[in-house]
Amino acid sequence: MHTLKKVWSDECTACYKCVDACPVKNTLDVRVAQNSRPLPSWIFGTLVTGVFIALIGLAMITGKWQNSISSDEYKSRFKELDTPAYEHFGARGH
Ligand code: SF4
């Protein structure tokens, strides 16, 4: 594995742990394309967060971020979370 020039895996979540753990600095990096510049972890995190916020914001603006449950029902159900109605049998040794 240490002789590979490139790791291309759909299992990679771009966590940067391998980049941080490598004892030889500037050996490993994350790029969006083969000839692109290395992508620092803070930029990657900012991009992922930005896309996430943009998609949710777009869904909220266009009214697609709703369901049939009212805010009042959410508030009512939230108060019942610690009641037996929402107890998960097996989770507490039942
Ligand atoms: S960034 Fe490195 S350690 Fe993290 S998932 Fe991808 S290959 Fe694995």
Structure, explained:
With 94 residues, this protein is mainly α. It has one domain. It is built from 3 helices and no strands. The chain has helices at residues 17-21, 41-61, 71-79. The structure holds iron/sulfur cluster (SF4). Iron/sulfur cluster is lined by residues 7, 12-18. Iron/sulfur cluster binds at residues 7, 12-18.
SSE blueprint:
Blueprint: H1 17-21, H2 41-61, H3 71-79
Question: In a nutshell, what does this entry contain?
Answer:
This protein is mainly α.
Helix content percent band? 25-40%
Distance between the termini: 47 Å
Number of distinct beta strands: 0
* Strand and helix order: HHH
Shape: elongated
Q: What compounds are bound to the protein?
A: iron/sulfur cluster
Please, how many domains? 1
Average pLDDT works out at 88
Count of discrete alpha- or pi-helical segments spanning 4 or more residues = 3
Quaternary structure type = single chain
Content of β-strand: under 5%
